[in-house]
Every structure is written in structure tokens, then in C-alpha cells.
Write a structure and sequence with these properties.
- By secondary structure, the protein is α/β, with parallel strands linked by helices.
- The chain has one domain: Metallo-dependent phosphatases (Purple Acid Phosphatase, chain A, domain 2, 4-Layer Sandwich).
- Helices cover 21% and strands 26% of the residues.
- The chain is built from five helices and 13 strands.
- It has a six-stranded mixed sheet with strand order 4-5-8-9-11-10, covered by helices on one side. Strands 3-2-1-12-13 form a five-stranded mixed sheet, covered by helices on one side. A two-stranded antiparallel sheet has the order 6-7.
- The longest helix has 13 residues.
- The radius of gyration is 16 Å and the shape is globular.
- Bound molecules: fe (ii) ion.
- Fe (ii) ion binds next to loops.
């Protein structure tokens, strides 16, 4: 199975640049490359929108309608889950799907801000209900499984090591009980990372919209490093494609 893993598109409500970076151009370039590539499924690990606006989701959906393969996502802290679900037609946010004899489980690691219900906290957390659902799905289905969520459950280097999944230790403890969990796909930090914990491959996608780097100062844009991953589960390879 070949998976295209995209993350952090950060589309603005009017398609205008974010942090002086042309996120719309990067999305268009990414979709052009996806059209030329032989893939089975596209996964987007959150922050599709920068502001959660309906118009940003319309722009994204309109771009992805050119691609005729299954596309799934999970929400990120910049997304508005209601607008995302109401607007997207070609990209589905569901709990679980089976594809090519693999199970994909999509988690919601987003926590609403306690002061403003229209905003989310930057850090992530999997609540009790999320973790119970995860265990139920892992008990029900024993085929090879990939868990998708926005916030990293691994710790990246330098200043990127912030606002991660708060209860990552609890999450890792749960999935490590199930030998059929092979991979966790994440986003949020805008740089690509891979780690192995208990034989599970933890993969953070680069950002389609704008890139950061642990080797650059905080919030400096790593221009030209925007991209996505091609994960080949048969060959066990991961390739970064620049947008
Ligand atoms: Fe994020």
C-alpha cells in the first residue's frame, strides 16, 4: 500500500499567504504531484485550515476534487471541526476505515479553549472517550493498524518540542499492548520526524503550507522545505516530496 501523508496545509479564508508564505501555491503544487503519483490513500493529519473558516475548507475541497482516490483526515488545533465536517465532500473525517487490508483509526487530539469555545488550545490531549474508543477498535479488529492524529506523541528536537500530545505516555502504553498497531501518523510541528517505540513507527509529516526547522530560530520559516510524504508499506520506505 502506498500512502500519501499530508499535514498542516494552513489554508487562509481568502487563500492569501500566511506568514508571507503562499500556502495556496503549495497546496496546488502538492495536488499536481499527487495526480502524477500512484497511491492508494491520502491521509491529512490536521490543520487543513489556518482559521477554521468555511471558505478555507471550500478552497481545499475544490482543489482535492481533481483526485479520485480515498482521502481521509483528522482535525488539528487550527481547524473548526464543525465547519470541516460540514464543508468537505472529497475528504472524510471518520473514526475508522479499512483500506488494502489495513485499518486506519482517526483520533481527535484537539482540546477547545476553556475561555473561547471558538478557539482550540495549541497543545493536544486525548480524552477518556477517545482512548476508550481506540481500545475498542483495537480489540475488534486485528489487522495491521495505523493511528492518525494531529499532535505528536514523540518529542522533536529544540524549540519544536512544545505543545505536543500531553498524555502521550498513556497513549503509547495503550497502543503498545496491541501487536497489530504498526504506525502512528502525526503533524503539527511542520517538520518531518521518525522514531520507533516498542516496534511502532511514529511518523511526523512535514507541512504542506509552511515549514519550520529545529535548527532555525523559533518561528523562522524554512522556505522551500514544504512537502508531503510517500509511505510504501510493502517496501518499507518513506520519501519526502517537496511541494
Ligand atoms: Fe497544529
Amino acid at each position: 500500500m502506498r500512502i500519501a501523508l499530508l499535514s498542516d496545509i494552513h489554508m487562509s479564508h481568502d487563500g492569501e499567504p500566511i506568514w508571507e508564505t503562499d500556502v495556496k501555491k503549495h497546496l496546488y503544487s502538492c495536488v499536481e504531484k499527487l495526480k502524477e503519483t500512484n497511491i492508494d490513500i491520502i491521509i491529512i493529519s490536521g490543520d487543513l485550515s489556518n482559521d477554521g473558516s468555511i471558505s478555507s475548507y471550500e478552497l481545499i475541497d475544490d482543489t482535492f476534487k481533481q483526485i479520485n482516490i480515498p482521502i481521509f483526515c483528522c482535525p488539528g488545533n487550527h481547524d473548526n471541526i464543525q465547519n470541516l465536517q460540514d464543508t468537505l465532500q472529497h475528504i472524510k473525517y471518520i473514526t475508522q476505515v479499512k483500506q488494502n487490508d489495513w485499518q486506519f483509526i482517526f483520533m481527535n487530539s484537539v482540546t477547545p479553549d476553556e475561555f473561547d469555545p471558538n478557539l482550540n488550545k495549541a497543545r493536544g490531549y486525548l480524552n477518556e472517550e477517545n482512548l476508550t474508543n481506540l481500545e475498542e477498535l483495537l480489540l475488534q479488529e486485528s489487522c495491521r493498524t495505523i493511528v492518525v492524529m494531529h499532535h505528536p506523541a514523540i518529542e522533536p528536537d529544540g524549540w519544536l518540542n512544545r505543545r505536543l500530545l500531553e498524555n502521550r505516555a498513556e497513549f503509547i502504553k495503550i497502543i503498545s499492548k496491541y501487536r497489530h498497531v504498526k504506525m502512528v501518523l502525526m503533524g503539527h510541528i511542520h517538520e518531518h520526524y521518525i522514531r520507533y517505540i516498542n516496534d511502532i513507527q511514529f511518523i511526523i509529516a512535514p507541512s504542506v503550507g509552511y515549514a519550520f526547522s529545529a535548527s532555525l530560530p523559533k518561528f523562522y520559516i524554512d522556505t522551500g522545505k514544504e512537502g508531503f510524504l510517500l509511505i510504501d508499506t510493502n517496501k518499507n520506505t518513506i520519501k519526502k516530496i517537496l511541494c
